[in-house]
Amino acid sequence: MNKELEHSFVELLEEHQNIVHKVCRLYTNNQDAHNDLFQEITIQLWKAYPKFRGDSKFSTWMYRVGLNTAITLYRKSKRIINTYDIESFQFKIKAEEYDDTEEQQLKLLYQAVHQLNDIEKALVFLYLEDKDYREISETLGISEVNARVKMNRVKTKLKTILNP
Amino acid sequence: MDELELLKKDWKKDDTLKYPKLSYNEIYTMILKKSSSIVKWIFIISILEFVFWTFIAFAFKGSKSLKEFEKFDSDFVIIPLTIAGYIVLAYFFYLFYRNYRNISVTDNAKVLMENILKTRRTVRQYVAFNLVYLVIATFAGIYIQFDQNPAVINRAEMASANGEAFMFYAKLFLMTSAVLLIIIGILLLFYWLIYGILLKRLNRNYKELRKLEV
């Protein structure tokens, strides 16, 4: 692959890296796993980049590759011990941002999302990213109606997890 | 407030604070590393399977027992079996390669999963073919022995002279079947372990997506 291609890719990814971080945030629960998944998504993006024609936005294209890697291609690295320390990992920054109740509520919400299965997480992710049902259905390969139905079920499931 | 709306509000807030900002060089180093995706593993394992069965076929062809066997008039069985073996190998390898090339990370999640499973299915069918082939070749071999090997014919005749023909054939059939079953059993166990581990998550997620379409 030529240098120019490498350069344009790395620049684009540097600019849009938060999309990858966000995927990792939903699909992993510690910093090591986060980094590992980030690495794999980066490789997959890079491998697919020569075929990226620019007919969709780079960010839209990243959503698809990122989610596909997280849901289907990624194998957890053996060196990663599966600890459930999302609390320390994801909430350390927010210490003084919110009042206690909202912070507590968010903490529980993120924990609840982590309990969803891979497909449900993908729906939540796309929803949080303001994607419409057409894009959700196209990314996952299900019909728009089913995406809507499933999204409602996920909302109910989250409610049940939060208020058992 | 809806739970997800609250989450969305937080999700959209100050991204810059939440995540580490990787530099150009850090990302550049990442693209030089090797992938460890399941597709890569499936590719490696599938190639090994093709190599394994081809190796078995060659090892068998060079073996002493087959040389012995060639003394008999067995071309009518061996030649068609060998040709069938090669044609089927070429056919499955072509299918496998075509399916493998079709795997694209930019497809939608369902199509991507289907393509990966299709690639696996090709190799699985090839292995199934080999197992059937093994059974047919074994029984064809036994048939030729009984037809042409004087020592075997002699033993069979002795057994039937003693009125033990049924026992003789039953024993032979049971022992051959047992050996074949053990070999097949070990292979299937091995298989079940490797792919059970490798494809567990993929199968689960694929099922989840399929469930939505019913």
TrEMBL record, chain A:
Respond yes or no to whether keyword Cell membrane is given for this record.
no
Keyword Electron transport attributed: no
InterPro entries recorded for this chain?
RNA_pol_sigma-70-like, RNA_pol_sigma-70_dom, RNA_pol_sigma70_r2, RNA_pol_sigma70_r4_t2, RNA_pol_sigma_r2, RNA_pol_sigma_r3/r4-like, WH-like_DNA-bd_sf
Under the cellular component aspect of Gene Ontology, which terms does the record hold?
DNA-directed RNA polymerase complex
| SUPFAM superfamilies per UniProt | Sigma2 domain of RNA polymerase sigma factors, Sigma3 and sigma4 domains of RNA polymerase sigma factors
* Molecular function in Gene Ontology: DNA binding; sigma factor activity
Kindly state which keywords UniProt assigns to this record, in alphabetical order.
Answer: DNA-directed RNA polymerase, Sigma factor, Transcription, Transcription regulation
Recorded hits in Gene3D superfamilies, A to Z, give: 1.10.1740.10, Winged helix-like DNA-binding domain superfamily/Winged helix DNA-binding domain (1.10.10.10)
Enumerate the spans annotated as RNA polymerase sigma factor 70 region 4 type domain.
108-158
Domain (RNA polymerase sigma-70 region) spans 12-79
Top-rank lineage group of the source organism: Bacteria
| Biological process annotations from GO | DNA-templated transcription initiation
Protein family according to the UniProt entry: Belongs to the sigma-70 factor family. ECF subfamily.
**Under what name is this protein listed?**
DNA-directed RNA polymerase sigma-70 factor
Can you name the source organism?
Answer: Aquaticitalea lipolytica
